[in-house]
Amino acid sequence: MEKVQPVRGTHDLLPDEARRHRHVAETARLIAGRYGFDGVATPIFEFVDVFARTVGETSDIVSKEMYVFTDRGGETLALRPEGTAGVVRALISNGLTQSLPFKAFYYGPMFRYERPQKGRLRQFHQIGVELIGPATPLADVEVITAGADILEALGLLDRVLLHLNTLGDAESRTAYRAALVEYFTAHKDKLSEDSLARLDKNPLRILDSKDEGDKALVAGAPLFGQYLTQAAQDFFGAVTEGLTAAGIAYKHDPLLVRGLDYYCHTAFEFVTTDLGAQGTVLAGGRYDGLVEQMGGPSTPGVGWAAGVERLAMLANDPAAAARPIALVPMGEAAEKAAVPLARALRRAGLSLDVGFSGNMKKRLARANKINAQFAIILGEDELTAGQAQWRDLDAGTQVAVALDALVGHARAAVSA
């Protein structure tokens, strides 16, 4: 019989890795909560238009990577490739645009059909925050600072560098887009097939092409800074001043772009070289046109997302769970007595593992395997005497403890 395997690009989170994932998610949730970002959870699948309209029909995500399927009712649905679109859809469909600002934190699985590689899977997990409503530079600073504080809490802030750019306002982008189209049209014969397709619909995305020929052309392309309005320059200046005041170092990266028209002003990425090559661990930006594009009122917003797999690979190893106590009941009467005793110990806040079968030697061998610090041995003789044997597995010592004093004795021993 053929051995059952996981689907390519998916990954089982076994206890040790699950603990690292949980550490990332819970740390992020805690820090985000200090900023007032409340947890939200949206469905893992949506109508396909939610993503086609927001991620961009010409993007690789929509054209090549999105998992799309038709359900039994004939609806065309997609597994979510990212989190922002679902949060914005929830904002609109639940009428929350009337009670802004809306501050959301999310964590959950995302899905993209792409080549699996280190830190990148077809089912992966993201954390993210969205701040929807405020149009001020201070909101951008708040969101970036929240990301920096989460990275710091994970032990990563000194191993990343914030790359920062401005995408300007609508007037700036219109002028810059025209300049890019003129420049790249003059070099059409040297553009890659993907960049040729983007030239008319999404010329800014050519700037982050991975094709070597495109990169050579991009090196000579006009820079956005030449086309920024005074208002856009002032907005970016206020963001950089705020980050400096917060003590967050950054590098101005003029080639950092977001191709879709609803993005504007601030774009940012925290980048590390600890993954072998430059790798983005947290990225975001301002998207003032997104809510309106999805059918809601004109509403500004800014946010970021980060891949949990990458963060879990890089972050400090979280402390392992407290070493458990092994409860070893021997005989039918002892097994019955172990049920209320185990519950009492767990309700007292203690981690307990019950040995269900095998002789004494096998049960104590399991206690060693799970790295138990202590063992409680309960047999018929102990029950008759109203006591249990308390064994220190590290020291190899053993004492008798009255059953009615066992919870107190266990708490004192574990906390010593």
Automatic annotation (TrEMBL):
GO terms for cellular component: cytoplasm. Its EC number is 6.1.1.21. It holds the Pfam family tRNA-synt_His. The keyword Aminoacyl-tRNA synthetase applies. Coiled coil: none annotated. L-histidine binds at residues 82-84, 112, 126, 130, 258, 262-263. It catalyses: tRNA(His) + L-histidine + ATP = L-histidyl-tRNA(His) + AMP + diphosphate + H(+). InterPro entries: aa-tRNA-synth_II, aa-tRNA-synth_II/BPL/LPL, Anticodon-bd, Anticodon-bd_dom_sf, His-tRNA-ligase, HisRS-like_core, HisRS/HisZ, HisRS_anticodon. CDD domains: HisRS-like_core (cd00773), HisRS_anticodon (cd00859). Residues 29-324 form the Aminoacyl-transfer RNA synthetases class-II family profile domain. GO terms for biological process: histidyl-tRNA aminoacylation. GO terms for molecular function: ATP binding; histidine-tRNA ligase activity. SUPFAM superfamilies: Class II aaRS ABD-related, Class II aaRS and biotin synthetases. It is found in: Cytoplasm. Its main location: cytoplasm. Keywords: Aminoacyl-tRNA synthetase, ATP-binding, Cytoplasm, Ligase, Nucleotide-binding, Protein biosynthesis. Belongs to the class-II aminoacyl-tRNA synthetase family. Homodimer. This is Histidine--tRNA ligase. It comes from Elstera cyanobacteriorum. The lineage of its organism: Bacteria, Pseudomonadati, Pseudomonadota, Alphaproteobacteria, Rhodospirillales.
